[in-house]
Amino acid sequence: MVEGEMSKQLQDQINRLQQMRMQLQMIIQQRQQVEARLKETEEALEELNKVDEKTPIYKSIGSILVKTKGKSEVVKELQSDKESLELRKNTLEKQEGRTKEKLNELQSKVQNALSVSSNSSSA
Q1: What confidence score (pLDDT) does residue 119 get?
Q2: Which has the closest alpha carbon to 21: 109, 100, 86, 90?
Q3: pLDDT per residue over 39-67, tens digit each?
Q4: What mean pLDDT comes out for the span 113-123?
Q5: Residues 14-27: tens digit of each pLDDT
Q6: Which fold has domain 28-110?
Q7: Between the CA atoms of 13, 16, 17 and 23, what dihedral angle is there, to the nearest 10 degrees?
Q8: Residue 28, Cβ neighbours under 10 Å: how many?
Q9: Which DSSP letter does residue 57 get?
Q10: What's phi and psi for 95, nearest 5 deg?
Q11: What is the C-alpha to C-alpha distance for residues 111 and 115, in angstroms, rounded to an integer?
């Protein structure tokens, strides 16, 4: 193999490695955002458990607060949100794991190629 071809192939792998690192960072950020929303939802549900059915409850819609029909309606809505967020979090965790595996494989390939090319050029 001609050395120029090897460096082109190696450069492509390095570019893919950088893209994959950026992709992993985006997945991690998304997971963290989902986890934060999930925590907020769980805290809201905990607070709702402390109040009785007759307590007026308001929810924020944009920049206004709207009185809800009742506690049970809000609890159902938050439970649904919580389930969706948990599902999204699990999906992102799996995606993060797969991306880390691929990243490690590609990193090993690049490191091996770099060590082989440096050994052949020093010989």
Answers
A1: 73
A2: 100
A3: 999 999 999 999 998 899 999 999 999 99
A4: 72
A5: 999 999 999 999 99
A6: Helix Hairpins (1.10.287)
A7: -170
A8: 14
A9: -
A10: -60, -40
A11: 6
* Backbone φ and ψ of 59, nearest 5°: -130, 150
114: its two tokens? 């770099």
Residue with tokens 């991306």: 99
Reading phi first (left if > 0) and then psi (alpha if -120 to 50, else beta), residue 82 is in alpha
Name the residue among 56, 63, 26, 101 with its Cα closest to residue 109. 101
Q: Which residues pair with 59 in a beta bridge?
A: 66
Place of tokens 């549900």: 45
> What's the pTM?
0.81
3-state secondary structure of 60: strand
Structure-token pair, residue 94? 């799996």
DSSP state, residue 69: S
Q: CA–CA separation, 36 vs 41, rounded Å?
A: 9
